[in-house]
Specification:
Blueprint: H1 9-28, H2 33-62, E1 65-66, E2 74-83, E3 90-91, E4 98-99, E5 101-109, E6 115-122, E7 127-131, E8 134-138, E9 144-146, E10 150-155, E11 158-165, E12 170-180, H3 189-202, H4 204-211, H5 221-244, E13 248-252, E14 261-263, H6 267-297
Parallel strand pairs: 1-2, 8-13, 9-14
Antiparallel strand pairs: 2-7, 2-12, 3-4, 5-6, 5-11, 7-8, 10-11, 12-13, 12-14
Helix pairs in contact: 1-2, 2-6, 3-5
Length: 298
């Protein structure tokens, strides 16, 4: 079954632009000034598309699979099966059945009896990925979704196409892994004590009520040291509460622009698809370069 890159519009838009440029060049003739500009654009599009899709294929093939329970913080590849979050279930707007993610595209038939895209609705709720070592939340916001399950329903002049992920579906994720609720090396106890004391000083009356032991309306040096000791105790208590809290893992879109991918397909198959796109863009780039060389010689 053919599975397109559902969110990655560039992989759809670039070939459309490239073939449009080729049609324009053939229409106006290869030696016109406009054609030279179109060939230059074709060359740039081919080079950009080739490098981009090749990079995505290499990320998929070169990133080792991690386990949720032992994954390092940062860019990782995870494989498991999908589960819904506890609480209100995500329901398919097409069937009314529970899903963990969906995208629903709606089309209307125009006066020429052709289907025209009207709008697309997509769930934004996170879901869970579970493997043998643990579970993590997956935030679908900004991800490229490669999903093979597709349902199409036509009712009169309306067509709706849905892609969805269900409970227990195999899930492959390539993205940024973070553990929430754990103590990190950046924890600065002294800075937290200073911040807490600064917060107390903003409410002078409450500070006096707590630490002005002799009632003279001033915080003496001894009383300030008592306040500092109390702040240290409160910060230490907060630290213990954080240490005792269960860790929560989440995968989300990388902040550096790297590929964020969620799929129910085998990663080797996904990498092959990106390689096909890469080969297409490379052939267009080489063809454009050959056209430039031919025109320069002519």
């Amino acid at each position: 079954m053919l599975v397109r890159l559902r969110r990655d519009g560039l992989n759809v838009a670039l070939p459309s632009i490239q073939f449009g440029l080729v049609a324009f060049i053939l229409h106006v003739g290869p030696r016109s000034q406009a054609s030279l500009f179109a060939i230059a654009l074709l060359l740039a599009c081919g080079l950009y598309g080739w490098l981009r899709t090749l990079q995505h294929a290499r990320l998929i093939l070169d990133t080792p699979t991690s386990r949720v329970g032992s994954a390092a913080q940062g860019y990782v590849e995870l494989r498991g099966h999908g589960e819904p979050l506890a609480g209100t279930p995500v329901l398919s707007p097409l069937t009314g059945l529970p899903v963990i993610w969906y995208r629903l595209a709606t089309y209307h038939r125009n006066n020429d009896r052709k289907w025209v895209h009207a709008h697309t609705d997509e769930s934004d709720a996170s879901f869970l990925l579970r493997d043998a070592s643990g579970v993590c939340a997956v935030d679908p916001e900004g991800a490229e979704m490669l999903v093979r399950r597709q349902d199409t329903v036509e009712r009169g002049d309306i067509r709706q196409v849905q892609w969805c992920l269900l409970r227990h579906d195999p899930i492959y994720v390539l993205g940024d892994f973070h553990t929430l609720g754990s103590i990190t090396p950046e924890l600065d106890t002294a800075a937290q004590v200073r911040d807490l004391l600064a917060e107390w000083k903003q409410d002078h009356q409450r500070l006096l009520a707590r630490f002005d032991l002799d009632g003279d309306g001033q915080i003496s040096l001894k009383e300030w040291e008592l306040a500092r000791a109390q702040a240290k105790r409160e910060v230490a208590k907060q630290r213990q509460e954080v240490l005792a809290a269960p860790e929560a893992h989440v995968v989300r879109k990388p902040g550096d622009g790297r590929l964020y991918l969620i799929s129910d397909l085998d990663p080797a198959r996904i990498a092959r698809r990106y390689r096909w796109w890469s080969a297409l863009h490379l052939s267009i780039f080489l063809g454009s370069a050959a056209a430039v060389a031919w025109l320069s010689q002519a």
